[in-house]
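sanity check this record:

:::
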Amino acid sequence: MDDPVLRVQSQLTARDRVLLGWLYDHGVLTSFQIAHALFPSLDFCQRRLRTLYRLRLVARFRPLRADGGSYPYHYVIDQLGAEVVAAGRDERPPRRDHARVERRRWTSSRTLEHRLGVNGFFTDLAGYARTHADVRLGEWLSEAACRRSGVFTRPEDPALVRAYQPRVRPDGYGLWVSGRTLVPFFVEYDTGGEPLSVLTGKLVGYREWFAAMGRVWPVLFWLHSAARERNLRRMWAETPPLVPVATGARDHAITAGLCPAEAVWAVAGGGGQRSTLADLSAWVLDDRDPTGEAA
């Protein structure tokens, strides 16, 4: 019997496999995000995406704009693509309706903008790494992956792995590698819709989580605007956070032509100067190598 997974595998590049894994794990990416993260040009990216679409590895949709016109193509995993990813990871095959459910979820989701924002944060890092030789995005975990029991807990503490469930829900986890410097971090992507007191309240959960993990990593608040960042930092000046926190404002970064890898981060209690993502290694308290290998 002809196996479509075996038939298509020989046509895939290493870059294709990275993309399929991202779509499987993170749901949806725009053509612009994919091009920036993985390809030397948008035209090259679009040609390859058309090939993957014809092979039925990815599916796509194009939301309409409220003021007319449409957005760029948004890509999600198709059923064959999901089966290829599962086979490559030696996992159980996905449900037969996996791709249909995922496609319906994102074409009708009220959280699409937020998910694209979170994913854009990480594809910006990947795009920066693609053009800078000494850095890389070593790991990228989704919100769902961060909630899995024991994913960050020390393996030598099996009772804690089973017992502790974090109260916070990071929008993502990443590992930034710059030369021999490792910076594990959590991301809170802000759309401007939550009260600042809610953002501050999340730090209590992070403090408990770090105590349970036995390690401390920076929490990055990627904020809607510079004005919102100033207001949040004003709150923290009165009640200093008890975990390492850095803030960045998207409108400031866009105006300055900077990405999250560059000097856009202001550490709470650090005087307001901007640091690069690699500089935040000073706030990492960790006696292990998060990549599982020597740096």
